[in-house]
Specification:
The structure is a homodimer of 226-residue chains. Chain A has 226 residues and is α+β, with helices and mostly antiparallel strands. Chain A folds into two domains: 133 residues, Nucleoside Triphosphate Pyrophosphohydrolase (Alpha-Beta Complex), CATH 3.90.79.10; 63 residues, Orthogonal Bundle (Arc Repressor Mutant, subunit A). Chain A has four helices and twelve strands, in the order E-E-E-E-E-H-E-E-E-H-H-E-H-E-E-E. In chain A, strands 1, 2, 5, 6, 7 and 8 form a six-stranded mixed β-sheet that branches. Chain A has a two-stranded antiparallel sheet with strand order 3-4. In chain A, strands 9-12 form a two-stranded antiparallel ribbon. In chain A, a hairpin with an 8-residue loop joins strand 3 and strand 4. The first copy, chain A, is elongated, with a radius of gyration of 19 Å. Chain A binds a DNA duplex (27 and 27 nucleotides) through helix 4.
DNA sequence: GCAATAGTGTCTGTCAGACACTATGAC
DNA sequence: GTCATAGTGTCTGACAGACACTATTGC
């Protein structure tokens, strides 16, 4: 029995998410040298000279792909097997990153996550995106992670919509407000947003916020799909 | 500016835990070619020919190190940087695995986790073990993972001690029993354990148990250390 | 009887879910 | 006034924490 100890290929795979019009989008790149357009999530290797650690590499990949920094990245898992890539044994650390809704980026190359089946995705990238979506959905149930997707000023209703979009469910308004306000995660501004009805209090995220863990999960009622 | 795209070294690092006398132990191996004895957690590379995926490799490493299978392994994180290993840029997927208390293994090479500072551990292995301990502690707060460390027959008090050892805190008996029994994770046997006081009902884990997620965390009161 | 451990009854507090209610703007 | 959306009051139910209580054994 022969044991091979040579190194597997190693790559980083990053699903970058943004929120737009009550819809989650993921950033995809066209793969080169393909007869038909095949789309892939952001990926790349480690720059052994310049990167200090993996998170560093991921931030670099995100910024060089979309031109803006991500306020929150998270490692989802590391997978590795002989079948996911035609080149052979391949290990990949899978991350997701989010960007703020305020960033004024065109929607080119951003794909609504509920329409991904219509497109041709590279390798196992569809499954990787789903793993990341599951993770951010789980996190939305018991942490404040979705706050990182909000613009600098937002209303509680905006924030609720953001959570609901990630959770694919409707949250009860009073519970949601109590939870967020009691946790002290956001700060009211001296401003309101005026529209065609009662003005809404504007908030910003409290300085230093990274992640808050709630003591209980929030579930909501599953959304019916149109 | 030059960009290096060659591959980093890749390794698996596995902290194997067992419970013994209300104490968590981790399995360490002496590193070869060291003037003084330096201890390391189980580690190795991927067998590109025989391993189907990373979990497979981890199970292989565990079994070849201690001779028994682990009923539960979990990937904790993947780290990578230029400084953790003298060989240079190194990526490591960090796992922990647990084994059943029933396994009749001598305690050779098993180290109490609260005594690790007394020993000389390789590289960043102490930090890796602490990451794994933190993870299993977190999991003990809201899942049934510690059940995998129990022998085939155990009492509720045994189980509570197992949780308490991992959590480093004392749990209120009634709450604990209610939580475990209401979740339906264990099955009473037609047996009792008799000692020098009232006999205790024996249980086994329900077939098919892998992990149960409770809806709330359990905290307990921090143990005073002697 | 006593000591030791197993196991229960039951109250409290916290917080999510539900839902009806009021408030304030545009028109 | 109506419509739309913001925001509140308050009851319920689930479940963890606390803690005193009873139960069953060995001695």
């Amino acid at each position: 029995m022969l044991t091979t100890t040579s190194e597997p290929f190693f790559a980083l795979e990053v699903a970058i998410f943004r929120m737009c019009h009550h819809q989650l989008y993921v950033y995809l790149q066209p793969m080169l040298n393909q007869p038909e357009t095949v789309w892939s999530i952001v990926n790349g290797g480690i720059d052994l000279v310049h990167d200090k650690n993996i998170d560093n590499s991921v931030r670099r990949l995100i910024e060089s792909a979309i031109g803006v920094e991500s306020p929150y990245i998270e490692q989802v898992k590391t997978i590795g097997n002989a079948t996911r890539h035609p080149q052979g044994w391949m290990v990949a650390a899978v991350y997701y990153g989010v960007i703020s809704q305020s960033v004024n980026l065109p929607l080119d190359n951003w794909f609504a996550v509920n329409q991904l089946e219509k497109h041709d995705l590279a390798f196992d990238h569809l499954a990787l995106i789903y793993s990341c979506l599951k993770r951010i959905k789980d996190k939305a149930q018991y942490t404040s992670v979705p706050l990182h997707m909000m613009p600098p000023e937002f209303t509680l209703t905006d924030l609720q919509h953001c959570f609901e979009t990630i959770l694919l469910s409707n949250i009860e308004k009073k519970s949601f407000r109590r939870r967020i306000l009691d946790a002290g995660l956001i700060v009211p501004l001296d401003k309101e947003r005026r529209g065609r009805s009662r003005p809404a209090q504007l908030y910003r995220v409290k300085r230093g916020h990274i992640i808050h863990h709630f003591s209980r999960k929030m579930h909501g009622k599953s959304k019916d799909f149109a």
